[in-house]
C-alpha cells in the first residue's frame, strides 16, 4: 500500500461536504438505483443519522423512494410507521410513538435525530393518498417475544381464525421467561425447539395476507412478526453454538424482510435501508468472507444486480459517541480517539481536516487496497481501539463514502447519559 498515492487520489476525487447542497453528488450518483443502502460506523453518532435523514428526504422527494427499512425491531418501528402515516389510533405525537423503542439499546432509534426526521415524514405523508405514503419499517430479528405478542393481540382484536395457532406457538416459548439465552440452550442442546409451531404460524399468515382485501399493511405486519419469530428461533438456537451461522441467519432474515416489504409496495417500489456499515457494505470486500459470513449489502447486490443497488459507507476520524461498556449496560457518551495510522479514516483525514464525500471509480487502483476501516458497536471500549478496524477494500465494499472529520454523540430521547 502506498498511502501517499491514496491520499493524492482522495484529494483528486473528494467533494467537500459543507452543506446539505453538497449531497447532490450522491443523489446524482444514485442514478436509477432502486435500493440505496445508507450505513454508519457506529450506532451512536449524530451526523450519521442527520446526513442519512437529509439524503433520505432528497431520495423521497426527487426520486420517489417508497419506504425506509432500518436495523430495528419490526413491532416498535411499525408503531412509528403508523404514526407517520396518520393511522387511526396511532400515537398522539412523535415522542409517544418513539416510546415503543424500549428494548436495549434504546438510543438507536429513540433519539432526537430520529424524532426530527419522523416529524418530516409525518408532514410529508399528510396529503398523500394511501399506498403513496412513505413507510418506516424494522428489519431486525431480535424481537421474538414482542413480535409474538403483537400477533396474538392483533388476531384477538380481529377475531382471526389463526389465533389458536398463534397462541400455541406463543405458549411454546413461555416457559423460557423471555430469556433468549435459556431458549437457545434448550433448543440447541436439549431438543426443546419451537420451530414447528412458528413455521406453521408463518405459513398460515402468509396465506391470510394473500387473500386480504383491506388493511393489508396490518396483514403484512402479522406476517413479518411471524417471520421474525421463525428466524429469531433459529438465530437464538445457532447463537449458543457459536460460529458464523447466527450472523448469517440474522442478515439473511433482514434481506428476506426487505424483499417482502418491497413486494408489498408493488411494481416500481424503491427502498432506502439504514444499517451499520457491517451490514450494508458488501461482505465480500472484507475479512468476513473468509469466515463464511454474508451480509445485507452482499445479498441485495447478488439478488437484485449491482446496478440496482447503491451503498454509501460512513466514517469519522475522531469525536464522541453514545455506546455502553457491556451488553445491556448504562448509556455513556465516550470519546472516539483519532483514527489509527494508515487506516481508511486516517487517510481521509490526512487529505484535509474537513468533511467530504467520495464516489468511487472502481477503475482507480488506489481505492482497491485493503485498509483498516473503523466499526463501533453498541458495546465499545475506546482503550482497545485497534480491535475495532475491519480490513476492507473501500471501492468494492461501497459505491460512495461520507466522511465526517470530527463527529459528536447523538441525543437519546429520554435516558440519562454518563459522560466518560
From TrEMBL:
Superkingdom of the source species: Bacteria
CDD domains registered for this protein in UniProt: Ere-like (cd14728)
Membrane-spanning segments: none
InterPro entries: Emycin_Estase (IPR007815), Hydrolase/PRTase-associated (IPR052036), UCP036794_erythomycin (IPR014622)
Name by which UniProt lists this protein: Protein-L-isoaspartate O-methyltransferase
Amino acid at each position: 500500500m502506498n498511502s501517499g498515492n491514496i491520499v493524492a487520489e482522495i484529494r483528486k476525487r473528494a467533494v467537500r461536504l459543507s452543506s446539505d447542497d453538497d449531497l447532490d453528488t450522491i443523489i446524482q450518483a444514485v442514478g436509477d438505483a432502486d435500493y440505496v443502502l445508507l450505513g454508519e460506523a457506529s450506532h451512536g453518532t449524530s451526523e450519521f443519522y442527520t446526513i442519512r435523514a437529509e439524503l433520505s428526504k432528497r431520495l423521497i422527494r426527487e426520486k420517489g423512494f417508497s419506504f425506509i427499512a432500518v436495523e430495528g425491531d419490526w413491532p416498535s418501528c411499525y408503531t412509528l410507521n403508523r404514526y407517520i402515516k396518520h393511522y387511526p389510533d396511532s400515537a398522539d405525537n412523535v415522542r409517544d410513538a418513539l416510546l415503543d423503542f424500549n428494548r436495549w439499546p434504546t438510543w438507536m432509534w429513540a433519539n432526537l435525530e430520529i424524532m426530527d426526521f419522523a416529524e418530516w415524514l409525518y408532514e410529508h405523508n399528510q396529503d398523500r393518498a394511501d399506498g403513496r405514503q412513505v413507510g418506516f419499517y424494522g428489519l431486525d430479528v431480535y424481537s421474538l417475544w414482542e413480535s409474538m405478542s403483537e400477533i396474538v393481540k392483533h388476531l384477538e382484536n380481529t377475531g382471526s381464525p389463526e389465533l389458536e395457532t398463534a397462541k400455541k406457538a406463543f405458549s411454546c416459548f413461555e416457559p423460557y421467561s423471555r430469556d433468549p439465552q435459556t431458549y437457545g440452550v434448550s433448543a440447541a442442546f436439549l431438543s426443546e425447539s419451537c420451530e414447528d409451531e412458528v413455521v406453521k404460524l408463518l405459513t398460515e399468515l402468509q396465506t391470510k395476507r394473500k387473500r386480504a382485501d383491506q388493511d393489508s399493511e396490518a396483514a403484512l405486519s402479522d406476517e413479518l412478526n411471524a417471520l421474525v419469530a421463525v428466524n429469531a428461533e433459529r438465530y437464538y438456537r445457532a447463537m449458543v453454538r457459536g460460529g458464523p451461522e447466527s450472523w448469517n441467519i440474522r442478515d439473511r432474515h433482514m434481506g428476506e424482510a426487505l424483499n417482502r416489504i418491497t413486494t408489498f409496495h408493488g411494481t416500481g417500489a424503491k427502498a432506502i435501508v439504514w444499517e451499520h456499515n457491517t451490514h450494508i457494505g458488501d461482505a465480500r470486500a472484507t475479512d468476513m468472507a473468509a469466515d463464511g459470513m454474508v451480509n445485507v449489502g452482499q445479498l441485495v447486490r447478488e439478488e437484485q444486480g449491482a446496478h440496482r443497488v447503491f451503498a454509501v459507507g460512513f466514517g469519522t476520524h475522531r469525536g464522541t459517541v453514545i455506546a455502553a461498556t457491556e451488553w445491556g449496560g448504562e448509556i455513556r457518551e465516550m470519546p472516539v480517539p483519532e483514527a489509527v495510522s494508515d487506516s481508511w479514516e486516517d487517510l481521509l483525514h490526512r487529505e484535509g481536516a474537513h468533511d467530504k464525500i467520495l464516489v468511487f471509480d472502481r477503475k482507480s487502483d488506489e481505492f482497491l487496497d485493503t485498509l483498516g476501516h473503523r466499526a463501533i458497536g453498541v458495546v465499545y471500549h475506546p482503550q482497545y481501539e485497534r480491535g475495532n478496524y475491519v480490513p476492507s477494500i473501500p471501492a468494492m465494499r461501497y459505491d460512495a463514502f461520507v466522511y465526517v472529520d470530527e463527529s459528536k454523540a447523538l441525543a437519546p430521547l429520554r435516558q440519562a447519559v454518563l459522560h466518560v
